[in-house]
Amino acid sequence: MRTAVVVGAGMAGLATAGALARDGWRVTLLERGAAITAPPTALVLWPNGRRALEALDPGGGWPSIAAPLPDGGVRRPDGQFLVSPHTRPGAGRAPAVVHLQDLYDALVAGLGEHVEIRTGIEVSGVRVHRGQLAVGDGTGYLDADLVVAADGIDSAVRHAFAPEAAAVGSGFAAWQAVIPGHRAPQLETGGETLGAGYRFVSMPLGERAASRGGVYWVATAAGAPRPESPATQLALLRRWFADWHEPVGELLAATRAEDLVPQEVRELRPLPRAYGFRCGTGGVVLLGDAAHAMPHHLGQGACLAFEDAATLRSLVATAEPGPALGQAVQEYDRARRPRTASVVRQTRRMSAVVQARGRLALRARNAALGSLRPRILGHAHGPVTDWQPPD
């Protein structure tokens, strides 16, 4: 039986492990944490991400866990629309929002009996010994035909194969929170507001989310991550956004310190020189944030990771260890690098938009908004979200 080691049991790793197992691979899933746990947040699932998930697991029941997200437009802090909402997105083009607990539950349920999960494992290295690829787990080595690095922006596997790609700060601090339904303001649609160096995005999760509904919000501010306690950071956010239009103030008032998830926004600069490395009886591939971590201004990080997984699955579905699998690893690299490089460029453009300060810069930013699609909310169209799974 073909063997694969997937390093990292986040969204990308879980999706990849389950897809490979359904195609007959024997998969070992390594997770450095003591357990597989979902962050207490949510994500926007754009059409390209949804198509990738459906290609990975057609029976995964993705529509049942995702709430449709109508276009809420983009506003200034005083509430005036910079980009008006569109009420009729094209068929199959509307984004959705999903609670990560629901997504993780579905991905774990799809792993199947051919996935062995090992938690508390810190990968120590990857080697090729006598023609066999193997992953070090701190006590020994696990042989594999295929190694999938889904271990995030600080990937130990990427560091071994593409040390030129460094994780650097993006110049932003970010905060996320999910307010449970019993204390969340009622929102009919999501919304995005852009200020001078600040951004606030909110979206309703739907009544089914994590069995409790609620509202998910994300705030970003130019500058370094804050060192204070969550309670102090929440107080700062309430002060920074105090004069913004509702429901921003209502959402922050309903948020508790234990809901707040501060996040350092980092990215890879430069991107790895390759996403696939042919070696042993197959090779090593980089996937998700291990390959192309970027700021979340377009909301495409998870969606691109699911695209990676769907592309990899398609290419290795029938490939046997040896020349065929090695060639599939190289094809994965050729398929994914141009795509992700394009999205990273658009994300960096959006970073410049969010950082805009000063009257002239803000005026130019507002004039350019119409061409910067998609954002977190707004129209889901164009080459970013029109991606289709490979046949």
According to DSSP, the number of beta strands is: 19
Structure class: alpha/beta
CATH third-tier fold name of the largest domain: FAD/NAD(P)-binding domain
Give the overall silhouette: globular
Q: Oligomeric status of the shown chains?
A: single chain
Figure out the total of helices. 11
Give the biggest sheet: 7 strands, mixed
Q: What is the distance, rounded to the nearest whole angstrom, between the alpha carbons of the first and last residues?
A: 24 Å
Over all CA atoms, what is the radius of gyration? 21 Å
Helix share, percent = 25-40%
In round numbers, the mean pLDDT is 90
- CATH level-1 class of the largest domain: Alpha Beta
> Would you identify the CATH H-level superfamily of the largest domain?
FAD/NAD(P)-binding domain
Strand content: 25-35%
Strand order of the largest sheet: 6-5-14-15-16-13-17
- What is the number of domains? 2
Under the CATH scheme, which architecture of the largest domain would be assigned?
3-Layer(bba) Sandwich
Structure summarized in a few sentences:
This protein has 391 residues and is an alpha/beta fold. It has helices spanning 11-22, 47-56, 62-65, 100-109, 156-161, 230-240, 248-254, 289-292, 301-316, 323-354, 359-368, and strands at residues 3-7, 26-31, 42-45, 66-68, 74-75, 81-83, 96-99, 115-119, 125-129, 132-136, 141-144, 146-149, 166-179, 191-194, 198-204, 215-222, 261-269, 276-279, 282-286.
Structure description:
A hairpin with a 5-residue loop joins β5 and β6. The strands form 4 sheets. The chain has a 7-stranded mixed beta sheet. The protein is 31% helix and 26% strand. With 391 residues, it is α/β, with parallel strands linked by helices. The chain has helices at 11-22, 47-56, 62-65, 100-109, 156-161, 230-240, 248-254, 289-292, 301-316, 323-354, 359-368; strands at 3-7, 26-31, 42-45, 66-68, 74-75, 81-83, 96-99, 115-119, 125-129, 132-136, 141-144, 146-149, 166-179, 191-194, 198-204, 215-222, 261-269, 276-279, 282-286. α1 (11-22) runs parallel beside α4 (100-109). The protein contains 11 helices and 19 strands.
